[in-house]
## 1
Amino acid sequence: MAAYIFRRVLLMITLLFMLSVAVFFLFNMLPGDPARLTCGKACTPDLIEANRKRLGYDQPVLVQYQNFVGGIFFGRTFSADSPEPIKCEAPCLGYSFSRHEEVMSLITRAAPVTFWLAVGAFIIWLTVGISLGIFAALRRGRWQDRLTLGISLVGYSMPSFFIGLILYYFVVIQWKLLDKPEYVSPFEDLGKFLATMILPWIVLAVLYAAFYMRLTRNQVLEVLNDDYVRTARAKGLPERTVVVKHALRAGLTPIVTSAGLDLAGLLGGAIISENIFNLPGLGSLAVDSITKSDLPIITGLTLLTASLIIVANLVVDLLYAVIDPRVRLT
Amino acid sequence: MRQPDSLRVDQRAEAGPYLSVSNLVVKFPSEDGIVNAVEGVNFSVTRGKTLAIVGESGSGKSVTALAIMGLVNRKSAKVTGEVWLDGEELVEKPDSGIRKLRGNKMAMIFQDPMSSLHPFYRVGAQLSEAARTHRKISKKAAREEAIEMLSRVGIPAPRRRVDDYPHQLSGGMRQRVMIAMALINSPALLIADEPTTALDVTVQAQIIDLIGQLQSEFNTAVVIITHDLGIVADIADEVAVMYAGRIVEHASTERLYASPEMPYTLGLLASIPRMDRETNRLDPIRGNPPSPLRHPDGCVFHPRCKYTDRVPNRACFEVRPELLESERNHLVRCHIPAEERRRIATSVLGAGTGGGAAIATAGAGGTGPAAPVGGPA
Ligand SMILES: Nc1ncnc2c1ncn2[C@@H]1O[C@H](COP(=O)(O)OP(=O)(O)OP(=O)(O)O)[C@@H](O)[C@H]1O
Ligand code: SF4
Ligand SMILES: [Mg+2]
């Protein structure tokens, strides 16, 4: 087990390295001059040249990459020979010259917002999705099953920007049930935090809950004809125990896989919900940086999202071994 | 050593049959039409006795067993007739009522022990769950019972094995675990659906012996389902041969082996090699069983029967034969007169068989081929 985890972590690091190379070189080949972005309207050819030098964009791509990786481990200093050098402590993901801030501190500021958004929605959708899925499976073929399936189909096919805008319009603007969303940390003002997060949570959860409801229902129904489920019935167990303890447990693997990867994906930023509800999370940061072609931020965010997915994959694989004793992690 | 409650054998000698099945019919409506899986089955079993149900694949053996256990999905199947278990009728009983009997008064083990145990739970947890479903006992007590049961079914080092997962056990061991699980609440009825089919030949006899041994310990009524007449000869008191959802012959084991009458039974017996009998050549039954969607008119066996010309007026093709008493406790479903059936049997199976050479044993008392049963007194 320990050896397995060790090997997986090594593999993870290799993957991240390869990814960083790919991301770095791909983004560097994009059209557009990063140096131009540093001065906006005030740009003159001389200023652009100077900034290019300050940022290190004048150097060969390979050297730039070397500096970038070096920054992650040891920190780096931008415009070292200018009167006001910018020190960027390790781990340094780069420096955004359009925002005049380290990428790392931008990310650490936005990450908690996205974290709470993703985790809150995750809890809601898993609870709602899985329990509705079990409910539908228990009532398979009856009107309750069809109703649940119908609702999930509606939830599944409604685009989240649509649900988001509708909710925002009625709840906030028309009925004034909630204040205009403005993010605060839950440790600062829990009430306001919840009032801000509840709508985006719902928007995200609707889509995912619909998917997990179907997934759970289908998984349960698929294993419901298996021999060991028949054995469970032959013991005289109540149908609910048969479905939850025996059938659901057996059909859990794909649910865990999806849950892990979906959560990881969301932790990288929920672009639509964050934008509609004015949440300064990673999704908003990403959109903003892309519109401004802020390469250092985009590179940093891409690497972060990719690492999340890679870590989630490892966690999911470890969970398999917890769920299914036949899985040997060696 | 003090026996745990669950292991105490019910000492009340019960006179009447513990299980009586009367005119059991199971139909599955399907897209292609109605699947006639079981078409009017009657039998009964007393505690301490074993009935073997024998027949080819698709003859309705499993569905009969599942219907008794209330494990046929009532939403997708139509079950009629009567199943009396210890004075209670089960066909009309609501699901919740049958559930309390399942695993408690009646238990079942299945063909494939590989897939019949839950792969994700420890053996001990699966056994304890069975105990705790029906009795209010602590987890610890249930675990002790599980260990005790494992040792009784001959699993070595049960204290260690109780924490194994099913995949850590061999097929034979898993079937022992299934048996332990079925017997943990001391059911008075055990149904074993082809308990050895999935096992190595060497293990098969051990499992059958184990069932026989536990049966006398627990004084259980046993229904054992098989398509291999050879394997149950030693432990069955009676044999019912099923064909196309019907019982076609039913007699004490001795009688059935010594003096079979129904042509289908002859075919089954002719295809097992026996030491005590000179078989010319294994003579399997030609053709295939009929589709349960459309049973043939007349005798359901007629498309495969070699003796239809022995019956006048094409009766085999047009008239359904009844299951009639050929001799006391020997029921046969065939138009050919009894005398001639025995002559045919002798010629097919060789000397030493048929012609009333063997007399139905007195031992079959109490476990009669059932006349239709009403409610108990
Ligand atoms: N749930 C079901 N729905 C529809 N048809 C079924 C169902 N269960 C069984 N059948 C059909 O009923 C018939 C009898 O099946 P059954 O399983 O009782 O046969 P069997 O005698 O046990 O055979 P085997 O030796 O293969 O186990 C078969 O034709 C089978 O296809
Ligand atoms: S009734 Fe006719 S077809 Fe059926 S077993 Fe007897 S002889 Fe054969
Ligand atoms: Mg079967």
## 2
Amino acid sequence: MDNPSHIPPIQPLLNPRQDNTRALVLVLGVIAFLAALSLLFMLSAERLKRSWQSQLTQSATVQLMIETDAARESKIESALSILRTKLPEAQIIQIEKQDSDALLKPWLGNVELPDDLPLPVLISIDLYKDYSLDIQALEDALRADGIIAQLDDHSRWSNQLSRTGQSVKAIAMAVLLLILFAAIAITTFATHASLAAQRDIIRVLVQVGAQDSFIARLFVSQAAQRGFYGALIGALCALLVAIFFILRRRTEDVLLPDLSLAWIDGFWLLVFVAGFTLFCALAAYITATRILRTERRRR
Amino acid sequence: MSNSPHINDVVQFHRVALRYDRGPEVFSDVNLRLGRGSFTFLTGRSGAGKSSLLKLCYLTLKPSRGLINLFDHDISLMNRQEQQSTKHRIGVVLQDFRLIDHLSVFENVALPLRVAGQMRAAYSQDVTELLQWVGLGHRMEAMPQTLSGGEQQRAAIARAVIAKPDLLIADEPTGNVDPIIGRRLLRLFSEMNRMGTTVLIATHDTSLMRDIQADILRIEDGTLHRVQGEVFDG
Ligand SMILES: Nc1ncnc2c1ncn2[C@@H]1O[C@H](COP(=O)(O)OP(=O)(O)O)[C@@H](O)[C@H]1O
Ligand SMILES: [Mg+2]
């Protein structure tokens, strides 16, 4: 009172040295690291899938079945002009013979193809923007001109890619959930231990009239703090590992998981840290409230 | 801090019995009334049940039979929240002090206010003044383990009275302190009593009782006898 500005700094009611805070944060950090890594994988797999898919949907291939050699060039010309009028927003070019031969090489082996082999003529369509092709209409238009053509808009590949992407996402999601459950289990266990370790303090708090909610809040904020630090450490480590992978892939062609990073990933990592913290807090709240309630019944 | 005006009896026991688990009854038929603003000593030989009776009063034990009212409310009808609110109106000093080891003396004494959600700026002056009053002004930031037994006890007493309780309960409060400090503590209690706090002190130190005009109850063979005053009712 002689020095009213001197108010001793506020001390935490729970004894910070009572239980193995550092070990616990470390374990939570490892768990959060695994979760954050699988989150980054999921995000980059999703991104990869989307970019492939948009490449696929923005392009199509036309196979022209041309039998007679005489009309070959004129038929190709008319096919190209029909396609160009039908699709003014696309780049439409004939795939050169050596290029289309190269496409066949994996199937036919390194043999010289005879010139008179009736190979189909390939025309590639690249749409400048995302818009859906009406395959049937294009085929009909070509057929009206006497050209037998087969259009492939890659939807088969796209669908398969979509399915693969979906299962990759589901697996990553499952891993993420599993890891979050582990975090909940650890926090529950730690809260049990913490309540036991701080029993004397709780007894005093109860004696001076602390409500259960007040006591539970102490353990909730303790768990939230630990969860937050664990999640932060884990997320940062995952980010570092991702950066390391990306740099390695760029310099050497080693067998490393296909990872990419985007700014939006930072946002998702923040969401992850917040969610992880929330899960830990929730687990502590449920545990502390339950224990305090059963203790009271026993008395 | 003041008692609600409509309350007449702070503590009321009607035919209260207590036993621990399957053990014998510590007392079998206790009737007790502590009027608002009364000052009562509870005596009896060691093991007679003084501490147990106090525990019933500060809601740490439940009676095995009988009725207990605190502040005119039947404790068996209180939910947990009401029990805790009631405890906040009761200051307790126990023989083992129960100071929290990792908190400073200041923090220990401020605990009831902090638990009640008061702001630090609002209470720190009160805590400081009270600590100076009990002679611990220079030890505010010390840790309890570094205090002598008597100092720990004074810290425990400061914690019990800081929230200006309606009922103050002390179990052998002068057990560890020299007679001069014992007097001083008793003066603190009677000061609180003058301001309206009901005081109940268990002690076997009869010298204390000479200094203060108080009711004296004696617990013997499981029942309560009035030695002096008018508290005991049949
Ligand atoms: N927690 C307990 N469990 C079982 N018996 C107890 C417990 N506390 C006290 N007792 C018994 O109750 C009786 C009264 O004890 P207590 O209230 O501490 O007496 P006092 O404070 O007058 O010395 C004693 O016989 C003691 O052994
Ligand atoms: Mg005793």
